[in-house]
Amino acid sequence: FLPVGILLGIGLVMLVLRVSQARLSPLADLQLAVKKKEFIVHYQPIIEMASGRCIGAEALLRWRRPDGSIVRPDFFIALAEESGLILPLTDLVVDTVVREMRDTLRQDRALHIAINVAAQDMKTGRILEVVSQALAGSDIRPEQLWMEATERGCMDIASASLTLARAREMGHSMALDDFGTGYSNLQYLQGLPMDALKIDKSFVSTIGTGAATSAVIDHIIAMAKSLKLYIVAEGVETLEQAAYLAERGVDFAQGWLFSRPLPVEEFVAFYCATLAD
Ligand code: C2E
Ligand code: CA
Ligand code: CA
Ligand code: CA
């Protein structure tokens, strides 16, 4: 028979192994991923309706796990915002965009990249520091960096307005993202100094379905026009949707009809191909 001490020892070793193999909590998992910089940026082309040209892209965050699998932001953005990890993640996006897109942006001054700004950064204006530091010495012009803030991110109208106004003074264009999904009306919009409105894909997807909500999209377009804002439609998946939007004077569109979000080399190739057309 084995002495009790050895049995206890084996038990202890097995326990330690079990604990070290246990899954981390989602937050600890995300924290570790941020520390290890397991994130990349994909670029989704934005198309000018009138010319069919790619005039820019939206930078979209992706979590690339060590096993190579890619996690979409819907699974971690909310947690990142609650925990404050969205701040280092935003820094990472800005740095990556500057590093990866610098050469292309210097070659074509009309090209722009749009980044997503979190509510916290809209509230404090921290994003302005982050962006100006990243652009310093890069020879990328402020006009080439657009920022998208969601309606939710502009709930605190006074501080959001200040951040928007300062960003525009610096030369950036500002877009209101996911428009129509929250509490938005004409009065709210008039209080926010903006350049563009992004129509959420939930409205675009109603085009041609006969759904009652498809009237909402006409209303949004009319509202944006009366405020002289550029309009970007997102989630455009069909030719019918694109034609409908183009007929109504929507300026820009983004969606799987044109392209999915792409890794940088593929985006640059896509952009060059639309120039050649
Ligand atoms: P969003 O800003 O509304 O971005 C558009 C989302 O629609 C993207 O999802 C894009 O991949 C998807 N999409 C584009 N075209 C189509 C289409 O034709 N059909 C369909 N079904 N989907 C389309 P994604 O990349 O999963 O991002 C989800 C959200 O996560 C974004 O929504 C944005 O709110 C947030 N997000 C992504 N990157 C960042 C980031 O760097 N910072 C912050 N704060 N939020 C980010
Ligand atoms: Ca966006
Ligand atoms: Ca959006
Ligand atoms: Ca959206």
Strand order of the largest sheet: 1-2-4-5-6-7-8-9
Give the low-confidence spans: none
Run of helices and strands: HHEEEHHEHHEHEHEHHEHEH
Main β-sheet: number of strands, strand sense, barrel status?
A: 8 strands, mixed, barrel
The first-to-last residue Cα distance is: 83 Å
Count of beta strands? 9
Mean pLDDT: 93
Q: Determine the number of helices (DSSP H or I, runs of at least 4 residues).
A: 12
Helix content: 40-55%
> Which structural class is indicated by helix and strand composition?
alpha/beta
Radius of gyration: 22 Å
Q: How would you describe the shape? A: elongated
Organism: Herbaspirillum seropedicae (strain SmR1)
EC number: 3.1.4.52
Domain EAL: 23-275
Main location: membrane
General description of the model:
- The radius of gyration is 22 Å and the shape is elongated.
- The chain has 277 residues and is an alpha/beta fold.
- The protein has an 8-stranded mixed beta barrel with strand order 1-2-4-5-6-7-8-9, surrounded by 4 helices.
- It has helices at 4-21, 26-35, 77-83, 86-107, 119-124, 126-135, 157-170, 186-190, 201-204, 214-226, 239-247, 264-276; strands spanning 39-48, 54-64, 70-71, 112-117, 145-150, 173-179, 196-199, 230-234, 252-254.
- The mean pLDDT is 93.
- Bound molecules: ligand C2E and calcium ion (CA) (3 copies).
- One calcium ion (CA) is lined by residues 177-178, 198, 200, 234.
Jot down its keywords:
277 residues; membrane; single chain; cyclic-guanylate-specific phosphodiesterase activity; binds ligand C2E; alpha/beta; cyclic-guanylate-specific phosphodiesterase; 12 helices; binds calcium ion; eight-stranded mixed barrel
